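Q: What would this chain look like folded?
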Amino acid sequence: MLDTLIHSLWFAPLVACMVIVTVHSYLGLHVLAREVIFVDLSLAQVAALGSTVAIFFGAEPDSSRAFVYSLTFTTLGAAVFALTRTTHGKGRVPQEAIIGIVYVVASAAALLVADRSPRGGEAIKDILVGSLLWVGWPAIGRLAVVYLIVGVFHWILRHRFLRISFESEAVEREGWKLRLWDFWFYLSFGVVITFSVPIVGVLLVFSFLVVPAAIAFQFTRDWRYLATISWVAGVAASAGGLWASFRYDLPTGPLIVCAFGALLLGSMLLGRRVQSVTA
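A: My prediction, written as structure tokens:
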């Protein structure tokens, strides 16, 4: 009876994690290939700032108005990252520095706005940790529809996005309008984050994006296999963290993050073992 209850409680959060990992793990491959590791964290914080501003002006945290604010701020962030793209060896300031600055400024601005909002403290906490345990099927359905649209968008433009991420020097020599394509990439990236932050929070968004991709890169550089390995790793870590959380009554978000860390460590050890055997 207890096992049945546990499974019924964590089934919806598990499905939500599987949906989120589907797109996040793929986008994470682009993030690592472009070497803009903290862009997800920065865009997530920009989206959080938008939600905080909406709450300051009287919107409910989960309302359409809050979503519009969040998406608007994320679009501006995508434009900033596209415009500040640096070509190889020509940028005075590395783009990763710009990304870090945006994150810090957005975090500070969110704290300032929250300080003047009646529910600001609660909003900041929800943004950081999300509400994964309380996610409902309607929210999962909306998430799946949005991610499907973003997935189709990336599938149609996959050759351009993959070349820009994995062959950036070649496409620069060919004269591609990289800033324009970067804007569309970061905008789609921002849409994904805008929907995922309210559910899993800023910290888990970073884990979902970066860690599965990092695990996949331990074993291959072929993008055809990277996406599969990344998704499997994300689902395994999510399922393990959720199960342990319910089984031992521990905080869900931190436990999933630790599960990701443990899986990454195991993959690094296994990857080195495989390399030593095949060398």
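The mean pLDDT is 83.
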